[in-house]
Amino acid sequence: xxxxxxxxxxxxxxxxxxxxxxxxxxxxxxxxxxxxxxxxxxxxxxxxxxxxxxxxxxxxxxxxxxxxxxxxxxxxxxxxxxxxxxxxxxxxxxxxxxxxxxxxxxxxxxxxxxxxxxxxxxxxxxxxxxxxxxxxxxxxxxxxxxxxxxxxxxxxxxxxxxxxxxxxxxxxxxxxxxxxxxxxxxxxxxxxxxxxxxxxxxxxxxxxxxxxxxxxxxxxxxxxxxxxxxxxxxxxxxxxxxxxxxxxxxxxxxxxxxxxxxxxxxxxxxxxxxxxxxxxxxxxxxxxxxxxxxxxxxxxxxxxxxxxxxxxxxxxxxxxxxxxxxxxxxxxxxxxxxxxxxxxxxxxxxxxxxx
Length: 355
Fold this sequence. Notes:
By secondary structure, the chain is an alpha/beta fold. It has 2 domains: 27-159, D-Maltodextrin-Binding Protein, domain 2; 185-352, Lysozyme, CATH 1.10.530.10. Helix content is 48%, strand content 10%. The protein has helices spanning 2-21, 66-78, 90-99, 109-115, 140-155, 185-194, 199-210, 230-235, 244-260, 269-282, 284-296, 304-310, 317-320, 333-352; strands spanning 44-49, 57-59, 62-64, 81-86, 104-108, 122-126, 131-136. Strand 2 and strand 3 (62-64) form a beta hairpin. The radius of gyration is 24 Å and the shape is globular. Residues 10-37 have low confidence and may be disordered.
């Protein structure tokens, strides 16, 4: 009897261990301490890929595709960022890898077998769709992480996006950048020129705010494509700000005001744009306080990533009671999420949408 009981306990433990092994390691905290990834939130992996109507495309103004899902999964597990570069020719992708301009290139198995011969040593892993992720063999830390991740993907294929893709279809021909995001592209282009923005950045902001739906009203009373507050529209003498063009006009006038405000001065163009996005979401005074607080924490107030790293501290009484945060506690999670999403979507739009 005792022997049978021991066998049952052993079987139960084995089944539990198997169940735990099948659980996807979604956060860095879930990895064993001795296998903690060497990547951090500040790391950005650079990918070189080709446009493909299954693997990377635009669907209803949102980036989609099998390879994009895989890239997001790998970045999510390791808590890092990613940047995609469109390189149509496989040989050019290999050259980017050799020149150090890409960390990972993605190609088909056939292209890998053709291109690998005679080149510098590389490490490649195959995904369930037979595509190959290739890295420089000298990057041993990344090779270890990539091999472990690929083994997980193959052993848990039922949990992953299907290699055949989903039922969505690319907007137009996914092999070339599309030209249409919304019915309001003409207005977006016109008003983006007024503030010297890439129209795709303004489109990314609008998509984040309203998904291009002009009838949306937020619980706070923000309206329309750019989620303009009534007081903001009134300040710019715009009465019927629910109409698409008037709504965009009001939102762009606010962006122009933020561009010129001294509270956001001193940063280069890349960082300044992200400060403007943050101020559009949280208000100019709040972001001015965020920069002052970041400086008090020995961080560079002209760099958005350093200010963003300090913002989570502003929700704790130890910090928000200080002289640098006169408005009091600031959660900041919504603003960080807003800037990250708008900028990530903008980078996809630059890949997938024609100028």
